[in-house]
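Session log. Operator J.P. requested a structure for one protein chain; no other inputs attached. Running the standard single-chain path with token output.
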Amino acid sequence: MHAFACPNCPQPIHFEARLCPHCQATLGYDPVIDAFRHLTDGATRWRGEDSGAREVVVCANNNAHAICNWLVEPDEPSHLCRACRHNRTIPDLAEPSVPPRWARIEAAKRRMVHTILKLDLPMETKAEEVPGRQGLAFDFLYDPAAENDEAPQVMTGHASGLITLNLIEADDAERERIRQNMGEPYRTLLGHFRHEVGHHYWSRLVETDPDCLAKFREIFGDERIDYQQALAEHYNGNGNTVWTDAYVSYYATSHPWEDFAETWAHYLHMVDLQATAESFDLSLHLPGESTNAAPGNDIEVRFDPYRADAATLARHMEPIAFALNSMNRAMGTGDLYPFRLSDTIVAKLDFIARLVAKNRVAAGVKPRSVTTT
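Structure written below.
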């Protein structure tokens, strides 16, 4: 994700901004131009200076709940933005702990949606769903049982384009407890969205394409093995698959669907992280010798990560990750990027990068070549 500036000051602002922290201008993010608009004097509507300029208004979830900072065309029937219109169920806001948790969930979801839009992937709502073109929807549910350390009644997961998320995942302490219990190196709200939307795109792009499905089975394995049994064996420790450097995470070993979803999430991690590095004109000089470094051990992101191939992303990821992990350790925190990319994992990432490139074209977007740097 590139860096953003307030259109009124201009000073740098974060993607989640609704008010500029410097000039206090009311702001709204316009996904059509991938930039912020200045809504003068707290207004809810913006029009360009030219008489024929496009008009936008704030998302209905901003008016009703102050939960969204995106803008939408005034003639959109739902009055919801490109991210919020995929919500099927929002949580019960009467519970005091729910609104701040929902706000964190929506912020993570908007980052995921931004990446999907930058990749030019198809993203239909359930109302736009037709055979062979699965729509995407979200259920965000409050689970009282999870508050009392009982077995959760709401399971985070995906089914036929519907992503369900238990609000307890927005609680940092609870999410960390689950992460440690499950032996995961990384668990975040944004990571959940990237993983679960991977399941959606497997159904949307892989399952419906016989040639792509055959290639998937060559690389990830046969998804027709019993999914529930595979998960049960995984959680009981009775599975035959061990975590090797062929899998990006331990959970990826449980079933080919989960391997794909974990690898898809990792692809989105890499793309967005390197797009941020490119936006800040980041360059690194690494000490010593590195086989993956550019000549002179200098690393620069001078390409569009949303259009890059997997080898390029992986080649730049190692030195960037080393630098970021070093900064985290300097602050006394854990590694930001606790992963290692083997050749097998890069091959899986290559499958996903090619899948994305292919379906930008299939979605009617002007073809762009996959760049290598």
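Operator note: The chain has ten helices and 13 strands.
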